[in-house]
Amino acid sequence: MLKEDSWNSRDKLWKTVWKIPGPQRVRFFFWIVLKQKLLTNVERVRRGLANDASYSICGHASENILHIIRDCTVAKEVWKQNYGALDGLKLIQRRGHDNVIIHSDSLEVVKAIHENDSKKPTSALLRRIHQILSQERQWIIRHIPREENQSADYLAKMALGRGGIFT
């Protein structure tokens, strides 16, 4: 475990965090994680701010940093689905299509895109999805249960088999 007194400005790990490409808030988030200052339920219990250390999103016994960032199956699935939508939209954009129909077996993804269509999304990923969709002449997103869309399910399984952080 990393401890606050283990911080060393010459340590390669600490320097690497600040060289991560992307928004400053992402680098700051990783810095907070490395310093173990993310206020998880485990930390809340330790500080006497809560009585329950469990993670309500997936039901895991303890909401700690490693579980939230790396181990939570619910979080992995959400990242995979949202990045899958973004990858598909980038492909459509590169090929010059201007009418887009998206079928997703993830009701959460469909809801997130629809709900954030009427207001400014708080997620950088959703903002990027909306940016791409705003450049399309017409777009529709619909929830299709996986059982009803076996072709898309097969293609998704093939794409995920390419090897990545979630496979």
UniProtKB/TrEMBL annotation:
InterPro entries: RNase_H-like (IPR053151), RNaseH-like_sf (IPR012337), RNaseH_domain (IPR002156), RNaseH_sf (IPR036397), RVT-Znf (IPR026960)
Domain of life: Eukaryota
Segments forming domain RNase H type-1: 86-159
Reverse transcriptase zinc-binding domain ranges (all copies): 9-79
Gene3D superfamilies to which the protein is assigned, alphabetical: Ribonuclease H-like superfamily/Ribonuclease H
Protein name: Uncharacterized protein
Source organism of the structure: Gossypium arboreum
